[in-house]
């Protein structure tokens, strides 16, 4: 898995903000890609920091484009959000990730249960626009029911921008999702108008501490204290913490020492192809 992860994607120049023509062109080819489900999902391992065990995968979308190469989400997600194309694209991502995860759970389920561990989880990014769409909760329900996935193994990653709105719809939808058994994570915690009160106000199960905090861990006392404090409070509230963007072993050790349970980052693995992820699940490859 490590060697495969070394591969670097060719980036095209993200000048799409500049040209209307190019924007239009990109929207059109996004439409085609959505119609043809011409996207690829990559899966980044989330590991137990104490044991090193694989506990989950975060699904990350890419767009293999004939002229542009492998287009990364930062170059089309914002555009798809603006146009609303994120709604069908996001539904595809959810369906695909859940289908894959259900298959992996079947492969690894017995072995993991025998070891007393939870079944493999899958974490899916949901943009604010997608969450606000009137059909979102129904899409989640349909995907959960048709796949037969154990709902508790599905995590939906929302950013703080969703919670900031504090409107009744957000609350109702989050309650419905909780009643379905699906878990909700706050993604990129610390980058927006973060408030630990979200953890009290909303049914949040997981908090993902943004990479920018992890970067600073070994650099200053304050940064360490901040991450430790967040981890402690989350733990007290029964919220599980995932540290994002762990790149070196010093960071891993500091996090494990402060009791942060889970982490992800290039130190463990880059986002993997579905085949590479499957090999990990089956034990044909190691982290
Ligand atoms: P994110 O949700 O914060 O995902 C983590 C990003 O950090 C991923 O970039 C991942 O490849 C990268 N990463 C993971 N570990 C490390 C590390 O150790 N070092 C560094 N430098 N980077 C690391 P990616 O795949 O390019 O995704 C970027 C963003 O695009 C995601 O940030 C997420 O906000 C969005 N995104 C990706 N897939 C989807 C999707 O299916 N739907 C939606 N709505 N957004 C998505
Ligand atoms: Ca995420
Ligand atoms: Ca994140
Ligand atoms: Ca991010």
TrEMBL record:
<feature type="domain" description="EAL">
    <location>
        <begin position="23"/>
        <end position="285"/>
    </location>
</feature>
<protein>
    <recommendedName>
        <fullName>GGDEF domain-containing protein</fullName>
    </recommendedName>
</protein>
């Amino acid at each position: 898995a490590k060697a495969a992860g070394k591969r670097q994607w060719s980036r095209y120049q993200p000048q799409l903000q500049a040209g209307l023509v190019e924007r239009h062109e990109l929207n059109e080819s996004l439409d085609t890609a959505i119609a043809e489900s011409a996207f690829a999902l990559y899966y980044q391992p989330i590991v137990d920091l104490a044991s090193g065990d694989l506990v989950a995968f975060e699904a990350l979308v890419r767009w293999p484009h004939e002229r542009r190469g492998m287009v990364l989400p930062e170059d089309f997600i914002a555009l798809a959000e603006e146009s609303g194309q994120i709604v069908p694209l996001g539904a595809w991502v959810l369906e695909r990730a859940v289908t894959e995860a259900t298959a992996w759970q079947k492969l690894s389920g017995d072995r993991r249960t025998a070891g007393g561990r939870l079944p493999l989880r899958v974490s899916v990014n949901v943009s604010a626009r997608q969450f606000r769409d009137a059909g979102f909760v129904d899409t989640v329900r349909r995907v959960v029911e048709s796949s037969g996935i154990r709902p508790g193994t599905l995590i939906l990653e929302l950013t703080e921008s969703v919670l900031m709105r504090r409107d009744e719809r957000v609350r109702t939808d989050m309650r419905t999702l909780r009643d379905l058994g699906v878990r909700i994570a706050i993604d990129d915690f610390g980058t927006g108008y973060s408030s630990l009160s979200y953890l009290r106000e909303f049914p949040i199960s997981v908090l993902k501490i943004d990479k920018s905090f992890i970067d600073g861990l070994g650099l200053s006392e304050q940064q360490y204290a901040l991450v430790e404090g967040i981890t402690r409070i989350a733990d007290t509230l029964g919220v599980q913490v995932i540290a994002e963007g762990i790149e070196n072993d010093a960071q891993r050790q500091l996090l494990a020492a402060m009791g942060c349970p889970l982490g992800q980052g290039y130190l463990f693995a880059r986002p993997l192809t579905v085949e590479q992820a499957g090999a990990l699940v089956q034990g044909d490859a190691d982290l």
